[in-house]
């Protein structure tokens, strides 16, 4: 059912009366007449056609509120419009509370909007001019692309087997052919070509998921992300063949960052330093493992070079976009540094979400120098991007010019887009440190962001319920359960004997270190 | 695949050697030869055919252990059999730990066994002789019947809508026609004829489930159970038409019982007293409610009388069996008291699980006098059956003969069957006060109970996984997730717009105070 926008109010000026016609959602029409003489309005018609479910009722209620606002503005007498609002709501037989005054947006429309062809603009969208004039207000084309890459990063969480009672804990629940299909991301027009696995020689707190079982698929490695490439249709739309690396992250615990200097490690020429723990995950390998005979770094670069060779041969223009959330955002920068060093001339952009700092000033400057374009999406209330260097950089805050001298101080690279949890009318007001770091919160805020000064856009279309997949951040009024994203019956199924059992994984979904897309798959 | 019992060991005496042939699960056969001379055994054949999944492997492992035990007994030299065990397990390539020595029972066979015709024995099974000589050892026919009624009580939990975000929180998720089908209980051969609702005028702690939403199906009432009746086939098997009332319970918080005397209430003649809170739930009603214009008591008795009238007219023999867990067990006794008072000559039996004490000595004596047969199933580690009167009765423990004088002291009615959590090899050793009260624990222990002195029966067939539906009581080795019984994605479904929404309940499942089985339904 098509619905009319929120604030559609028609004012029919008559000699002696003003007539308001409000078209609300769900075919609700409301007319009010204000006699020039009287100070209050008379409701003379109201139809509520299909507000069956509680949810729809709430929507209509909110629509009504929205609709009444212009009248409030038009009105000099607040009392009058207040009366109108009340009568209107009483007709809806709904309680009249503060929490009703929320712009719920297009909650019942499709979550996807039609896509634009951005083939002529893709370089700007990927930071050619460091996103000048694209971030505030946020260009809708850029928003869509950022969310696309964000959903690629989100897939590394949604596909991940977190179940310590599964022998495959720490791997991806689906093989690379099924991942996007299972997670409903096929519409983005990319194909996963290779899975990336990582291990770590240094003990990085709580990045590694381990099964409780004796026999497991791997004792050393975790699925750490994947390489994907745009198909012909999408390549057409975005103006080049886009290779994507999506890195899985974890909520970074602050303990990582208690001693900054101790955890800094030299790379390249002497001046450049990066966080030791991040680099260990990116670089560690061992002959005695099945999935990390090659390091994550080697696995990615091998695949990226293979794809470049393949598409170069067809004379195609190519870009490499690296994305990741939290720890994944840190790995993305290390990946970008290596790719830029080893493949000159390749357009490389990093789109990271809630990523901590990775290296020092020299690292940042080297990335700029090599033309790596980095866009960091940061939620104001999220503390992770403040690490490492939170304490340190704050001490030096006032003497910021000095910090440049200390090349051991962590620095953020590239441009950034700052989001504020309080922008969204759907999120609880009390800020939640862990929750505010959640990638779905980032995507939700991005979807509603117009500009620093403007409110959350009413026609944001991304499904709000996704926020509560693994958080408790949505306001009660939405009635979305908290932490709802879990397998039916925690993975148990009823077998033919009438027993609840954990089915062993489909052979096709058992992790394989070797599976990469053949050239036929690529075409 | 048919499997052979655990301990099947054949000893083939030869002149110079003893040959052991062990038939294990999953077509595993193992032969060991012990030369009269040597003190150790030689493994000479081992086939492992279909132990694909971890679970099956564990089973084979355990089967192997089981199989080795008799050898251990036969052997004088422990060392030797230990060696055998080890070789056996090494062949299975499985770790060798203490936790392997568990009798896992028939985990892969059907959960249901064929039923016997008990038509000639049903009066004894329902307490004609107060279950003398039927409880220890537990008669298999009785066990089956107790579990049947226990599963009827369990249905009041499994069908209950606990979701505070549902407008129907506190009702049954399914209408009475679908309840047994949805919960897989159709095989018991009963039909639900009426749903029972309750409210309470006194504030009984945490028995009442309330929705967080503004608009709900009822603000005062909860679904409190149902009346069911055996169909022709089942009536044939059990020798009479059985009317069942299954009462829903709650975990009884100890606060209920701080002041015993204050909460005692007179019923019938002056001497008889029962717990005030229980009685309030059983008897409360209000003109201004939709579901409790009649009290739970009136709803049940009306339906029971209707059914009796109907089947009496057909000259059938009738029994009334009342079951319930925890609070439900308490309500069952109040229900039995009323039924016995108002319908003389009706065979009434109560089968309760983990029920607290309900009334004083006079109440107990009156029930006996009226011929109400009560079988209380009690888990030793569960504290709820110790309330009310826990403190009090313990103080008076040593002067037990005196307590008879204090007619305000709570007394348990009828016979009881005591179960011990430590009997079951599947349950964690640390006793959990809340967990030990769970009805699924009761049913699990019943299923394995042979007698006070004998161990958990190896061929118990009820699905062990059910224990963890709403507890964390199963040992790790079973790899059953804890608290796994929850709706997929907490009740959210993906709609055609790509949004995760809570679907409104099927109209047919919206609670109705009036729905009862028509006479056609009864046949």
From TrEMBL, chains A, B:
Q: Gene3D superfamilies in the record, alphabetically?
A: alpha/beta hydrolase
**Does the record's keyword annotation contain Chloroplast?**
yes
Domain of life of the organism encoding this protein: Eukaryota
Q: Which GO terms describe its molecular function?
A: galactolipase activity; phospholipase A1 activity
Renumbered to this chain, region (Disordered) spans 502-523
PANTHER family (UniProt xref): ALPHA_BETA-HYDROLASES SUPERFAMILY PROTEIN, PHOSPHOLIPASE A1-IBETA2, CHLOROPLASTIC
Recorded family membership: Belongs to the AB hydrolase superfamily. Lipase family.
What protein name does the entry list?
Answer: Fungal lipase-type domain-containing protein
């Amino acid at each position: 059912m098509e619905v009319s926008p929120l604030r559609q109010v028609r004012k029919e000026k008559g000699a002696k009366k003003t007539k308001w016609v409000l078209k609300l959602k769900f075919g609700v029409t409301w007319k009010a007449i204000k006699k020039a003489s009287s100070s209050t309005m008379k409701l003379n018609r109201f139809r509520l056609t299909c507000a069956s479910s509680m949810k729809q009722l709430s929507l209509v209620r909110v629509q009504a509120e929205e609709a009444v606002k212009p009248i409030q503005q038009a009105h000099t007498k607040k009392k009058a419009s207040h009366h109108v609002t009340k009568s209107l709501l009483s007709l809806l037989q709904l309680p009249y509370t503060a929490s009703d005054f929320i712009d719920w947006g297009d909650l019942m429309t499709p979550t996807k909007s039609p896509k634009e062809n951005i083939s002529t603009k893709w370089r700007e969208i990927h930071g050619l001019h460091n996103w000048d004039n694209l971030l505030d207000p946020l260009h809708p084309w850029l928003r869509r692309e950022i969310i696309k890459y964000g959903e690629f990063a989100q897939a590394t969480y949604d596909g991940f087997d977190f179940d310590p009672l599964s022998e495959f804990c720490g791997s991806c629940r689906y093989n690379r052919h099924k991942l996007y299909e299972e997670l409903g991301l096929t519409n983005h027009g990319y194909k996963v070509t290779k899975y990336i696995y990582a291990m770590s020689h240094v003990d990085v707190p709580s990045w590694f998921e381990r099964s409780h079982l004796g026999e497991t698929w791997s004792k050393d490695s975790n699925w750490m992300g994947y390489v994907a490439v745009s198909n012909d249709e999408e390549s057409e739309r975005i103006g080049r063949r886009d290779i994507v690396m999506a890195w899985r992250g974890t909520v970074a615990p602050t303990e990582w960052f208690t001693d900054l200097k101790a955890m800094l490690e030299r790379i390249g020429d002497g001046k450049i330093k990066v966080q030791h723990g991040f680099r260990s995950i990116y670089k560690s390998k061992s002959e005695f493992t099945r999935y990390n005979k090659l390091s994550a770094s080697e696995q990615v670069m091998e695949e990226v070079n293979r794809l470049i060779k393949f598409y170069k041969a067809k004379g195609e223009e190519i870009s490499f976009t690296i994305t990741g959330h939290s720890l994944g955002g840190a790995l993305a920068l290390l990946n970008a540094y290596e790719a830029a060093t080893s493949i000159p001339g390749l357009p490389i952009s990093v789109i990271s979400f809630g990523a901590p700092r990775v290296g020092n000033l020299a690292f940042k400057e080297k990335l700029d120098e090599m033309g790596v374009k980095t866009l960091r999406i940061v939620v104001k209330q999220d503390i992770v991007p403040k690490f490492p260097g939170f304490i340190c950089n704050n001490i030096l805050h006032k003497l910021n010019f000095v910090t440049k001298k200390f090349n051991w101080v962590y620095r953020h690279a590239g441009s950034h887009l700052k989001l504020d949890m309080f922008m969204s009318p759907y999120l609880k007001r009390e800020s939640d440190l862990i929750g505010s770091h959640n990638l779905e919160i980032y995507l939700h805020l991005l979807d509603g962001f117009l500009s620093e000064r403007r409110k959350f856009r009413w026609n944001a279309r991304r499904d709000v319920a996704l926020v509560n997949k693994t958080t408790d951040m949505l306001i009660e009024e939405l009635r979305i359960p908290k932490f709802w994203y879990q397998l039916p019956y925690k993975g148990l199924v009823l077998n033919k004997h009438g027993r609840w059992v954990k089915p062993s994984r489909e052979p096709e979904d058992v992790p394989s270190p070797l599976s990469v897309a053949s050239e036929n798959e690529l075409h």
